[in-house]
Amino acid sequence: MAESIEIISWNVNGIRAVAEKGAFSWIEERAPHIVCFQEIKAAPDQIPENLFAERYPIRTINSAAKKGYSGTMIASELEPHYCNFRADIDLLDEGRIVEHHYGNIALFNVYFPNGQKDEERLAYKLEFYERFLAYCESLRSEGKSIIICGDVNTAHREIDLKNPKSNEKTSGFLPIEREWIDKLLSHGYIDTFRHIHGDKEGEYSWWSYRFSARAKNVGWRIDYFFVSEDLKEALEDAFILQEIMGSDHCPVGIRIAI
Question: Can you give the pTM of this predicted structure?
């Protein structure tokens, strides 16, 4: 019999800073089964040992080689039977992926690269996208179901950011970046939030710290859950927790029967 579980993804922009603010208390109260963090900016020995320890016995941490940069972590009630950091995709050792397998499901927590620095970095972001999709497709060919969550660093459609026209030449909303999300969906993956909520407007997951952007809800939806099409009927809900503070991103999540 399928069990309904909740998975949440949050770019915390520094896990130690969020912990010091006491901004994780909502996780204890809500008690999702799995929480995926991006941009933890910490090595394993810098993360408090007691953080989520009682609720989540499994903590898988992938820290970047560069100190205080990037990094991903999964805190889980459920024990995976396989875990990988995908160095074949994350070529620069930036701690961008944690891969857990639970039975026939491969869960990916990914902090995709940002392309705003320069053309070289944008090219790396696009290459990362392609390597990642190719690997997911190889797993699907083996019969795996796929759940992808994290900070994709691209808003897909005009509805996914407040000011699309003024950002058409900004990395994060370039046509070539958006085309990759089109490609992902065309390969049989579902944008869970849009699947559940359709063209609901004003739903964002990231806001600049400048110009009171969050208070005015001048944001971007760049944090996603995608699932392979075979999980469509199992998807029960998808949501954005805009009320949760502590980072320039807010958490996003799904409830799914697996």
Answer: 0.98
Number of folded domains that form the chain = 1
108/38 Cα distance (integer angstroms): 11
Would you say the C-alpha torsion 243, 257, 235, 86 has a positive or negative sign?
A: positive
Looking at residue 49, its pLDDT comes to 84
> Which amino acid, 170?
T
Tokens 């990395």 map to which residue?
171
Residue 179 backbone zone (phi > 0: left; psi -120 to 50: alpha; other: beta): alpha
**The domain spanning residue 36 has which CATH number?**
3.60.10.10
Question: Which of 90, 151, 160, 191 is the catalytic position?
Answer: 151
Is 93 known to be catalytic?
A: no
Q: Nearest-CA neighbor of 238 among 181, 183, 182, 191?
A: 191
Alpha-helix residue ranges (DSSP H) falling in the chain: 15-20, 25-30, 119-141, 175-186, 192-197
3-state secondary structure string, 34-72? EEEEECCCCCHHHCCCCCCCCCCCEEEEECCCCCCCCCE
Scored b (16 or more CB within 10 A) or e, 55-88 reads: ebeebbbbbbeeeeebbbbbbbebebeeebbbee
Q: Which domain holds residue 228?
A: 4-257
4, 34, 17, 5: which is closest to 249 by C-alpha? 17
Question: Whose CA is closest to 220, among 237, 194, 202, 238?
Answer: 202
pLDDT digits (tens, 9 = 90+) for 175-226: 999 999 999 999 999 999 999 999 999 999 999 999 999 999 999 999 999 9
Is the CB of residue 115 less than 8 Å from the CB of residue 172?
yes
